[in-house]
Amino acid sequence: MAAARDQLLDAIRALMAAHSPPLHALVVPSEDAHQSEYVSEQDKRREFISGFTGSAGLALITMKEALLWTDGRYFLQATQQLSNCWKLMRMGEDPPVEAWIADNLEDEAVIGINPWCISVDSAQRYEHAFSKKHQTLFQLSSDLVDEVWKDRPPVEPRPVIVHPVEFAGRSVSEKIKELREKLVHEKASAIIITALDEVQKYMAGNGIDIREYETVQSDANLLATGKLKSSVDGENDINDNEVGSLKIWIDSGSCCLALYSKLSPDQVLTLQSPIALPKAVKNPTELDGLRKAHIRDGAAVVQYLAWLDNQMQENYGASGYFNEIRGAHKKENIKGTKLTEVSVSDKLEGFRSTKEHFRGLSFPTISSVGPNAAVIHYKPEANTCSEMDADKIYLCDSGAQYLDGTTDITRTVHFGKPSEHEKSCYTAVLKGHIALDIAVFPNGTTGHSLDILSRAPLWREGLDYRHGTGHGIGSYLNVHEGPHLISFRPSARNVPLQASMTVTDEPGYYEDGSFGIRLENVLICKEANAKFNFGEKGYLSFEHITWAPYQAKLIDTKLLTPVEIEWVNTYHSDCRNILEPYLNEQEKEWLRKATEPVAVSS
């Protein structure tokens, strides 16, 4: 397979040389025309050409080199998947792609790009970097990767689902009315929306036309020339003379270069999408649904952990979830029933599928044993995944889509005897997890400021992790939702946290070739009951809505403060009381044992 991909590079370079004008480099992004994080099979061009399967990254092919940029979640995975023809470029450590091109390619070099798969922001950043050497970002009329992808998968139509108002909390007509009011306020005549989770779906009943992909560029051109009826035509607040002089609103972080190129720069209003913040700030119906969905989801996770505990003991002679007696298990499978990362994650999906309003997984389950758990976004495949091992840490990051909410939870467990080092690392991650959960902070605080709270306990031990601490989560929408996040990345400074936003709390630690640890809950941002209100700012705090126990035998309680021990015990007590009604007697007994109070070790 690696040899075949290396031959593809030769084919791509031949097309680059034959192109008019000849291309000195080709940029192959991960995104599709909607700048989606998770793309369809036919849009996985970067994966096809490089062999790297992570969800984030960018490939650059020159006449002599092939380079792949990705973030810290995928460094280890990329080193395992890239052939010797590729060079890994580590985001945050190596120069970004535009700087590398400007420094390493010749004057007046031509760099090809599929304009549908790059945002306006990225394109303008590239063009600025290229300007010092008069290099050109060239918009390709066809994607060169598609030309060498002979067995490219066909388009897979998926059904469009109308989200009932009983779960959404607001009707589409209300949302469109509010959107048009924002257009009027900003003196914009129209808005171009390209992100898939921002497309309104009630069709004709709400005055929405569905158009073919092939017509969207011409429609954008008609909109720019005033020949297409705009969103605010006929609004009482704007007269006919004003409409022609109004702007067309785009979000430069999600609008693709192909559509932007059909507009005149002086008629473009570049602002964050007016849909992003209302989507992130949940209404009361959405918050209620999210709480309920996480309770049912927590019950499924507990059922899974209880089942897996029993299976590891029966099939592998493991000491189990609660015990850590050395020598209590054998490494070999003693009953012949093989448990793999995929087979056990399928069982978890089975538990979830029995829950009310279940509609599928929110992302592919990260079910990872031992060294695989150190691959931050590991994706097990049935034919290559590892067998479960009682001697190694098991990390499971999973989630589901329910009509009333989206879930995302990570728990890390050990069914044998964890080492003191593993316990110490787990406890440091838990301390960071608790630190964010109990944070109180003034209105206007961004996730960039909060990120250090989760890292500080790890830093004290000389540890860290290469991913953000938290992301927004949708309401029956994307599991990774912006515009806010909790991270060290500069983009986390852009949007302050607000009451009724959701965000995950997921610090971790990963030791290449050995193990990985991550703990994740979903939090709701709420008004804090602070004693004072300095500066009349108002203060915020968090409410956790994820329910599943932390494994006591992985916690070194000597490293916890009294406040942290009280937090664990309170959480476990609440977890038990909330989930017991959804469990059978055997599962209840398992949960009672898993949530017994922890105390400082002697």
Automatic annotation (TrEMBL):
Q: What molecular function terms (GO) are annotated for this protein?
A: hydrolase activity; metal ion binding
- What UniProt keywords apply to this chain's record, in alphabetical order? Hydrolase, Manganese, Metal-binding
- Cofactor(s) needed by this chain: Mn(2+)
Listed CDD domains? APP
* Peptidase M24 C-terminal domain span: 538-598
Hey, which family's this protein in? Belongs to the peptidase M24B family.
Q: What is this protein called?
A: Xaa-Pro aminopeptidase P
